[in-house]
């Protein structure tokens, strides 16, 4: 099973990415399963908020290069998280790469623990963070976005909090989440839904204005010679041909 969904615990339903042997990579199947689960939870009266968690040492390594999702399907998943009438939180205590950062950008709240690390590695495999720019760029510090998107450098949870990728860094990720979950349990469901609409309006504007262009760019780049060379190098654990 690629995904597990808990029963609501005082209104909080945990959705766990559960493909640790593939570093929770976003395959076409996982994207579809996650989108379907979120659709159902959006209509579940017992769910006040959704907690997105992971098994293993990786939260999400980005697109599964062996079974990549269709860019349009990935855009639809990210938009579903943003539009869900219930808050979505991320519990991150593992590595996050490439498209995994798009999942975080789409979430309303996120807490990173000491086991977390982050990198926008697209340029290192010959593509660009096209689709994930839709939820990320409205949230990230512009200078940090330029640095990490252009260089692919790795950074830690404290830096992720500083630049706006996650809400908070906590030495104990569950302790960091606790006050947020308590606050959501105390909030009226209708008020939460309307407040989320206010907070996500700018992100949805980015989807409305740029989804088609970003989807087309992603498809074009993934079909390029650079992407082929970069993917082969990544899978074979060697440097791509452009490294100086």
Automatic annotation (TrEMBL):
Coiled-coil boundaries: none
InterPro entries tied to this protein: ClpP/crotonase-like_dom_sf (IPR029045), Enoyl-CoA_hydra/iso (IPR001753), Enoyl-CoA_hydra_C (IPR014748), Enoyl-CoA_Hydratase/Isomerase (IPR051683)
Domain of life: Bacteria
Gene3D superfamilies noted in UniProt: 2-enoyl-CoA Hydratase, Chain A, domain 1, Lyase 2-enoyl-coa Hydratase, Chain A, domain 2
Pfam families linked: ECH_1
Secretion signal span: none
GO MF annotations in UniProt: catalytic activity
Family: Belongs to the enoyl-CoA hydratase/isomerase family.
Protein name, as recorded: Enoyl-CoA hydratase family protein
Organism from which the protein derives: Streptomyces alboniger
